[in-house]
Amino acid sequence: MLLIAFLAAGLLAQTPPDAPVDWRVQFEAGKQAYVRQEYVEAAAKLRSAAEGAGRTPGNEPVQFEILRFLAAVHREMGDPAQAEQVLAKAAELCGAGEPSGVKLAAILEEISAVQRAQGHAGQALESLEKAIQVRAADPDSPRADLARSLAGAAMLRYKTGEADKASEGLQRAIREWDIASPGDPQALPAIEALATTYRDHAQYQEAEPLLWRALRMREAASGPDGAEVISAVDSLAYVEFGLKKFPEAEALYKRLAALWETNAGPDHPMLALTFDKMAEFYAFQQRYPEAEKCAVQALALRTKMHLGSLNQTGRVLLMEAKLAEAEDLYRRSLEIGDLAQAPDDTLDPMLRIYAKLLRELKRDDEAQKLETRVKDALLRKAEQEGRRPSPVKIPKQ
Question: What is the DSSP string of 228-259?
Fold first, then answer.
């Protein structure tokens, strides 16, 4: 017993209250609180750990890591300004030890991100430019990281109105990615942004190879029928049209329509917009029957959506017992549908509701006409669906 007491007393004597173990415990507790998404507790523990680690000379590297962790907590708490202050302290620590190191570049990139989150594009660009200088001067800095910083700076230059410098930055970023990691999906935003710039300035020759490249990368990542390829197919169809490569553009427009229908459904507004684009494409080539077909398809989709919205409004009016307003809306809606030559299945719900409303308003003759119209439409549909080709060939007389 005396030996145990002696050893315990010795251990206590070796562990003063402000020993380094205290900040280590706080650091671990802060990380655990972060995992539980208890951010207020995590911030308090990590702040205490950073202060404790800073009291001991030589602890700059671990204090640096604690501050980065604390900045991440503030970002997730929705406080980018506080995160920026914490990262600035981390940058001071890193700069004192290794002013041209990879760690400093990473911190400057994080500072840029939180500045961008606050809407400070100019400051964010300045921080990224410093990070780029550090990475370019450090042979140990991964080129893919340099490419990412170059792309980020280029995007910020677009926001600050420096389009020419932005394009140059994207070109440089793509070159760095090609050297460091060919085919890296992280290069896609830079490739697509540069292609979009060329497309919007009618520089179709420059945009075309970039868009084909982006499309192949998207296909490799998500398959040829995934929603992720839609944007690339859309832009590429436009560019091929601009280059007057009509067969290529036509195939892409047809693929675009199929992609929207597959991924968003046959009634999606973007499918109507695609038919508009195809109508313009065919009309330019004086292929008027195809242009008319696409224009009619676009109109039919928009009519269906518009009538659906009107029907929903009419139902709300009926729930409010505003019969006169509902009757006026349904009458005008049917006029719109008939003018647009909407198919019976599109008008069917409105016809049924309007007929029932007219019955309530004691306008039985008008209601009867609508009910007959619904019945005739159902008979036509049944006849069409029930018709089958003869299983035997009838000989000619």
Answer: GGHHHHHHHHHHHHHTT-HHHHHHHHHHHHHH
Closest C-alpha among 51, 53, 62, 64 to residue 21:
53
pLDDT value at position 232?
96
- Helix count and strand count (H, E) for the chain: 18, 0
Q: How many CA atoms lie within 13 A of 329 on its CB side?
A: 21
Helix axes 143-159 and 163-180, enclosed angle (nearest 10): 160
Q: What is the pTM of this model?
A: 0.78
Q: What distance in Å separates the CA atoms of residue 332 and residue 329, rounded to the nearest whole number?
A: 5
Distance CA 253, CA 268 (A): 16
**Per-residue model confidence as pLDDT tens digits over 6-20:** 333 343 333 344 444
Question: Can you give the pLDDT at residue 130?
Answer: 94
Question: How far is 175 from 376, CA to CA, in rounded Å?
Answer: 66
Tokens of 62: 């671990």
Question: What per-residue confidence (pLDDT) applies to 16?
Answer: 40
Query: Is 157:125 a contact under the CB 8 Å cutoff?
Result: yes
Which pair of tokens denotes residue 24?
């280590």
Q: How far is it, in rounded angstroms, from Cα 344 to Cα 384?
A: 13
Average pLDDT over residues 36-57: 92
